[in-house]
Amino acid sequence: MRNIIFIAPPAAGKGTVSDYLVKNYNYIHLSTGDLLREEIKSGSTLGQEIDKIISGGNLVSDELIIKLVEDKLNTLDKNKPFILDGFPRTLVQTEKLEEMLITLGVTNNLVVYLDINLEDATKRVIGRIVCPKCKRSYNLYDEKVKPLKDNTCDDCIIELEKRSDDNEETFKVRFNSYLENTSPIINYYKDKGLLLSVDAMSGLDNMLEVIVKEAKND
Prior knowledge:
Layout: E1 3-7, H1 14-25, E2 28-31, H2 32-42, H3 45-55, H4 62-73, E3 82-85, H5 91-104, E4 109-115, H6 118-126, E5 128-130, E6 137-139, H7 168-191, E7 195-199, H8 204-216
Parallel strand pairs: 1-3, 1-4, 2-3, 4-7
Antiparallel strand pairs: 5-6
C-alpha cells in the first residue's frame, strides 16, 4: 500500500477514511490535529498558546507543525504504510515534507485531495462528535457514521466530545483560511502527477473504493 497524504478542508472526511484504512489495511495514522490537541490537553505554555491560535480560527506556524511532524515520522515503523492527515497546509510545509521523505527514503506516496464546499462542510461540522480516546469521528446527522449508542464511542464505550473549535463562526474562518493556503499545494502536487482528487460528497463507499484502488496501485 502507498503512503497517503491527505489535502482537504476541515470536515471533508479525512478522519473517517483514515479510520477505515487503519482498521483494514494496517495504516499508521498521523494527524497533526491530534498532535496539537494533545499539546493543548497537556496544559503546557506551548499548549495554551496553540489553544488561543486554534480557538481564533487561525493556523499555527509552519515551524511548529514541521517540528511536530518530523519528530513523529522519525518514530514510525518503516514497514507499515502511513497516513498524513492535516499536513502539509502551506507551500513551505510541502517543500519541507518532500525533503523529510527523501531523507527517510520514502517514495511510494499518494496525495489525496478530498473536494468539498463550505456549505456542505459546515453542515457536517455542526454535527461532529469525537472519541477523546481513539479520536474516531461520528456525526449526529449522518446515519452512516452515527454512533450505535447515543453519544458513545462504538469501540471505546466512552462518552463522545464536541471539539471546542467546531462552531459555525470559527469553522468558516478555518475553512476559508485553509483554502487560501492550500491552493498552491494542490497545484504543486498536480504538476508532479501525485494528486488524486476525490469528491467528498460522493458517498463514503465510493470515496473508499477510489482511494483504496489507487493506494494499492491496481
